[in-house]
Amino acid sequence: MLSGPNLNLLGEREPEVYGHHTLADVEAMMRERAEQLGVEVRFVQSNHEGVLLDELHRARLDCQAVVLNPGAFTHTSIALRDAIAAVRIPVVEVHLSNVHAREPFRRRMVLAPVVRGQVLGFGPYSYVLGLEAAVYLARGGVR
After folding, report:
1. CATH code of residue 16
2. Which residues contact 15 (CB under 8 A, 6 or more apart)?
3. Can you tell me whether residue 128 is helix, strand or coil?
4. How many structural domains is the chain composed of?
5. Buried (b) or exposed (e) across 42-53, using 16+ Cβ within 10 A?
6. Any catalytic annotation for residue 95?
7. What is the spatial distance between Cα 68 and Cα 136, in angstroms, rounded to a whole number?
8. From the candidates 95, 125, 127, 136, which is the catalytic residue?
9. Residues 53-67 pLDDT 10s
10. In the predicted model, is pLDDT for residue 143 greater than 70?
């Protein structure tokens, strides 16, 4: 599970948009669901694009799928787009809010063409749904 910029501020940052759950709350929800699914999950949050790139590269060696909340990088990062295309493992993009119902600039999502799918608008449950989708893909689901 890779979380991008400003997600370390969940619970404080614009609670009217992102809710009151912290990133630790989200991780606890994912750990519980991962245990039920019989999978391991690793969590990394960074405000730095390069760290997320390095973690995607690392994931290709020891992970079967990635759940990624790229935050605002979804609208701007060609480097993340290229890394996702290069790693050749399923990447499921998640967002807490429905970005299509927000500011017009958020509707441009440069990662969309290379991720396997997106889950957005379900608050912290977006992460759990993203995990379920990633496990489904890793276990041979839809190709």
Report:
1. 3.40.50.9100
2. none
3. helix
4. 1
5. eeebbeebeebb
6. yes
7. 15
8. 95
9. 999 999 999 999 999
10. no
